[in-house]
Write a sequence for this structure.
């Protein structure tokens, strides 16, 4: 039995976590974090002893829990201060700088997979540039996220209030209590100061958690420069920016329509509005209402015409209506209380004679509403052809009212309750009032019916919903602060067209220009009715004669100043005495996007002149396409105006991260992916898929999986199975490194490697392999693997960076030998990470391991193979360098593990003072020797030969499962069986030039375990099977007396029959009418794959007939 003991550990981060400890041969901790983000089903094993750099030699398989232990790699990086550029710049002021900021996550909770993608991309870029010799600064921080944070804290406090209301003092006066019968809002109960303090407590609690989450990805962030968008320094920057924009006439206050959340009682930005298509009766939960509210229906009710013309008596405008009624259809019945007119189309013959007449309002006996005409508003074929005009609650109606010089009436207060109507509806929440109106109109005989919006061919409605609260958005006219964007937008468009700003992918350039056209965007509302945020630095001047500080008229005077003292000085200079007025600061706060738009320069101390300004402008920014205009465009607009510079040179945009089927991730769909569950567990993958040997997928596997996607797509379909694939690839890298490490124990290999180990990796290639190349000691497969590696490096340096930043001849090769011309692709692959990741994976698995390593293993101990083993070591180390930006933990551990083996250092004495991150990134110049020496064969021919041999081996191996020896059930000595096989099956080449070199033969032998013979054995006992097709030169010779070919024929026919049966099933599924489009496409792809398999099997069967 395991000796179990519960212990409590402190990780030095302020959070307590409960663990269970087990005493076995070694002491381990099996921990379960008390956190809903981590699955209780997954347990992670962490050694209690100090982390060890020799785990490459002690661990037979890759274990991300050990490799990604923060006390290993992160501790080393922090100790060496690799992420702080100050040391580098102190010795060389002219260093080339690459600066970035982390798009700040909100302090609202845990990170999602979109954050993980952005972080991974930026970290890969930062590490690439750092290894290319650049001074890199990547600044982390967090966003106060005004409305998002306030909403979450309100919900959290509401839960607490429901459990214990005594902890909430009631700070509301009787006059301030909402007239609506909503549950008490904890924000209003606590009061402004107390509520803000609760949010600061929340921020302090969650900030450390977010840091831990970011660090778990292995990011090279300079935490010494961490920012928070509501810090004093940022507040100073925000205030200064507001003043400069205001003084330039770019900020103004005006009444305008905005999107209003009644539950939160604030204006919200467009990005915080979600739209839901509704075409039929749908009940939704709305905050503040006990029962679900019905939407998606049209209410039909009537206004009675006052003194209708006699001609009206001959025609009704709606079935069931009276002759003196006009029936209206509306989805927002409650706004009829704010109606000031009815509108018809001037050409609608049904109502032409009524234009200029009046109707009586059923609830305002003394109010008569005019019937007017407007061709722009009314579409006669929709509804009844009569529209009620409620300009106080519809922007479209408001525009019509302005055209016809009609008054505007408001009937909702800030909480969405009916107010100032003088009717029984005052004080009712809008949706309760809606139902009460149905009841009262019914009593008056004016209510006709209710039907689905989509009935009779009606168009579905878009219901605007607040993404923060779930409330239904109410369009309202409010006095707000706005930024004039016309000139700012023009400057932003010019920056892109003049190539001062590069947008990736290219198609975003057209989208940018189109969206920023004056006709396609409006002024930016920057005020929010919240407690949490940057106060607006505007002070209202209240005359001492005013009865109330809330008195507001057209003569309102506002002073915009850095502080109230500065505002007082401004008024004093204008001749006002302090006794004549009082100053009240605007209670609103600024939109979160306003402060975020200043980040590229606010993080470096603007408006103050500091040394940090040398990091501005940023080299690049990476973010999601969905916030191109809400954040990035605004950063560009304000950056150009306030600093005179474009805030960054390049913007890289990735698409929306969706689930594997292309659906947007959401908790309601239960398809969201939590990156922490992947890093510390197996995510949402079932255990039977993952297997019992894998307990944790890890951060490096997640990072690599994320970067296999094409970022330029509008949607990125993330499949956790890709992470599992990368987790297995990590293990392949681990096994390759272990094999090489074991080979280093051999005296001749160790001597070869250790002699030049002190030199840089590039110099090792030039000195050792360059020397072999000069002496023409490189074998066919040596030349091939080096050339493949060089092409890979060119691909990655072209796709993971901007070549213009790093390519000072590093990626160009000088050669005078036409046989060794470097014919690399010239396609612009910049920022196409997926090309590099997939290329690297393919090179490692297929070229390095499946071919080159197999050839070396088969060669045994020969002097030439010692050279190849050394080349294998250099290839491995180069691959580790290449993949470091993507898999920083694994590559760092492998690099140190191999160094320890070569330096023969004991783990207890190994205290590294260097990191893989400080090494030079591979470049094509290292391999120039290969293209300058005069070999008898061209690189093109090397490629052709190795490709042919690989294809031959693949086809030969496809016969392996079908060749069953007639001795397979007989007990024979393995050596005798092997000898028998060598004589019973072999490869030949029938060609005019049938010569196969020793190197070619070695490759075939390694890949197939079948010997090559130059001459065919003249015997009727052999069948000769074309390896490719009937036109191939290569044949597989099989002794019919030694192999059961009848069994092979039967096995092939069985496989063909099974595949044909499966193909027929898929065809029938595709014929089903109900099958979805994506299902049909998937089935068609499967059918095509099966057909190719069948054709190959049929060819094999024909060879045996």
């Amino acid at each position: 039995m395991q000796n179990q003991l519960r212990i409590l550990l402190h990780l030095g981060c302020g959070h307590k976590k409960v663990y269970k400890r087990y005493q076995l041969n070694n002491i381990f901790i099996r921990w379960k974090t008390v956190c809903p983000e981590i699955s209780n089903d997954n347990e992670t094993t962490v050694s209690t002893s100090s982390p060890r750099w020799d785990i490459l030699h002690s661990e037979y398989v890759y274990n991300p829990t050990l490799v990604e232990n923060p006390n290993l790699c992160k501790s080393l990086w922090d100790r060496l201060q690799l992420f702080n550029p100050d040391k580098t710049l102190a010795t060389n002021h002219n260093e080339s700088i690459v600066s970035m900021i982390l798009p700040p996550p909100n302090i609202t909770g845990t990170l999602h997979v979109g954050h993980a993608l952005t972080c991974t991309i930026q970290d890969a870029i930062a590490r690439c540039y750092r290894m290319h010799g650049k001074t890199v600064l990547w600044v982390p921080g967090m966003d106060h996220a005004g409305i998002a944070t306030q909403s979450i804290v309100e919900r959290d406090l509401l839960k607490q209030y429901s459990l214990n209301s005594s902890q909430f003092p009631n700070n509301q006066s009787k006059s301030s209590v909402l007239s609506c019968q909503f549950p008490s809002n904890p924000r209003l109960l606590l009061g402004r100061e107390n509520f803000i303090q609760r949010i600061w407590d929340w921020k302090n609690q969650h900030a450390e958690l977010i840091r831990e989450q970011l660090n778990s990805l292995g990011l090279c962030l300079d935490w010494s420069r961490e920012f928070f968008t509501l810090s004093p320094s940022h507040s100073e920057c925000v205030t200064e920016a507001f003043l400069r924009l205001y003084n330039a006439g770019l900020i103004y206050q005006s009444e305008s329509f905005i999107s209003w959340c009644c539950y939160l009682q604030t204006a919200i930005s467009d990005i915080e509005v979600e739209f839901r298509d509704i075409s039929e009766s749908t009940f939704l939960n709305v905050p503040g209402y006990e029962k679900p509210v019905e939407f998606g229906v049209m209410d039909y009710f009537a206004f009675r015409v006052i003194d209708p013309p006699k001609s009206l008596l001959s025609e009704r405008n709606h079935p069931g209506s009276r002759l003196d009624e006009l029936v209206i259809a509306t989805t927002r019945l409650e706004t009829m209380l704010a109606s000031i007119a009815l509108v018809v189309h001037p050409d609608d013959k049904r109502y032409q004679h009524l234009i200029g007449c009046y109707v009586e309002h059923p609830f305002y006996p003394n109010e008569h509403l005019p019937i007017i005409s407007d061709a722009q508003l009314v579409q006669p074929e929709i509804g009844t052809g009569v529209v009620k005009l409620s300009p106080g609650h519809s922007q479209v109606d408001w525009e019509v009212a302005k055209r016809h010089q009609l008054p505007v009436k408001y009937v909702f207060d800030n909480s969405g309750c009916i107010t100032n109507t003088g009717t029984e509806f005052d004080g009712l929440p809008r949706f309760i009032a809606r139902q009460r109106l149905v009841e009262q109109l019914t009593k008056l005989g004016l209510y006709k019916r209710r039907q689905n919006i989509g009935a009779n061919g009606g168009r579905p409605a878009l219901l605007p919903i607040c993404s923060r609260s779930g409330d239904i958005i109410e369009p309202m006219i409010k006095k707000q602060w706005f930024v004039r964007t016309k000139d700012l937008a023009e400057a932003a468009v010019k920056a892109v067209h003049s190539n001062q700003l590069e947008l990736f992918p290219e198609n975003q350039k057209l989208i940018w220009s189109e969206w920023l056209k004056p006709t396609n965007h409006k002024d930016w509302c920057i005020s929010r009715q919240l407690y949490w945020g940057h106060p607006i630095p505007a002070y209202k001047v209240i005359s001492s004669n005013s009865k109330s500080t809330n008195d507001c008229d057209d003569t309102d005077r506002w002073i915009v100043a850095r502080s109230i003292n500065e505002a007082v000085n401004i008024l004093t200079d204008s001749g006002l005495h302090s006794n004549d007025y009082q100053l009240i600061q605007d209670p609103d706060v600024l939109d979160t996007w306003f402060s975020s738009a200043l980040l590229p320069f606010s993080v470096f101390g603007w408006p103050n002149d500091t040394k940090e300004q040398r990091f501005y402008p940023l080299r690049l920014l990476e973010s999601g396409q969905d916030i191109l205009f809400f954040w990035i465009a605004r950063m560009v607009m304000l950056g150009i105006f306030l600093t005179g510079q474009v805030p960054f040179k390049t913007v890289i945009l990735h698409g929306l991260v969706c689930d594997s089927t292309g659906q947007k991730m959401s908790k309601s769909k239960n398809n969201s992916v939590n990156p922490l569950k992947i890093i510390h567990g197996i995510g949402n993958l079932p255990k039977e898929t993952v297997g019992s040997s894998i307990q944790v997928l890890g951060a490096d596997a997640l990072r690599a999986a994320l970067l296999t996607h094409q970022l330029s797509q509008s949607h990125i379909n993330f499949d956790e199975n890709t992470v599992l694939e990368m987790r297995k690839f990590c293990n392949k890298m681990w096994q390759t490194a272990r094999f090489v490490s074991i080979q280093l124990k051999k005296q001749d290999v160790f001597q070869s490697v250790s002699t030049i180990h002190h030199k840089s990796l590039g110099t090792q290639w030039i000195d050792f392999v360059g020397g072999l190349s000069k002496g023409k000691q490189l074998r066919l497969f040596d030349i091939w693997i080096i050339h493949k590696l060089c092409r890979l490096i060119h691909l990655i340096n072209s796709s993971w960076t901007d070549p213009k930043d790093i390519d000072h001849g590093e990626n160009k090769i000088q050669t005078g030998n036409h046989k060794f011309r470097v014919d690399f692709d010239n396609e612009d692959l910049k920022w196409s990470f997926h090309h590099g990741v997939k290329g690297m994976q393919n090179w490692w698995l297929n070229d390095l391991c499946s071919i080159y390593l197999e050839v070396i293993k088969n060669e045994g101990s020969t002097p030439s193979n010692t050279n190849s083993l050394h080349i294998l070591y250099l290839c491995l180390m180069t691959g580790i360098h290449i993949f470091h930006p993507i898999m920083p933990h694994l590559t760092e551990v492998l690099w140190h593990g191999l160094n320890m083996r070569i330096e023969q250092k004991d783990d207890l004495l190994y205290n590294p003072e260097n990191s893989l991150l400080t090494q030079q990134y591979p470049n094509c110049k290292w391999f120039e020797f290969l293209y300058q020496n005069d070999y008898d064969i061209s690189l093109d021919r090397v490629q052709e030969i190795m490709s042919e041999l690989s294809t031959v081996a693949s086809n030969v191996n496809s016969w392996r499962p079908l060749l069953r020896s007639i001795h397979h059930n007989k007990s024979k000595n393995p050596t005798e069986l092997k000898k028998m096989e060598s004589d019973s099956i072999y490869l030949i080449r029938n060609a005019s030039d049938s010569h196969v070199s020793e190197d070619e033969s070695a490759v075939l032998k390694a890949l197939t375990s079948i010997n090559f013979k130059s001459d065919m054995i003249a015997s009727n006992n052999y069948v000769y099977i074309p390896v490719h097709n009937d036109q191939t030169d290569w044949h597989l010779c099989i002794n019919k007396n030694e192999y059961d070919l009848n069994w092979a024929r039967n096995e092939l026919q069985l496989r063909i029959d099974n595949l044909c049966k499966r193909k027929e099933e898929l065809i029938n599924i595709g014929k089903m009418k109900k099958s979805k489009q994506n299902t049909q496409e998937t089935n068609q792809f499967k059918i095509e794959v099966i057909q190719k398999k069948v054709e190959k099997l049929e060819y094999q069967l024909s060879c045996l007939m």
Observations:
- The two ends are 63 Å apart (CA to CA).
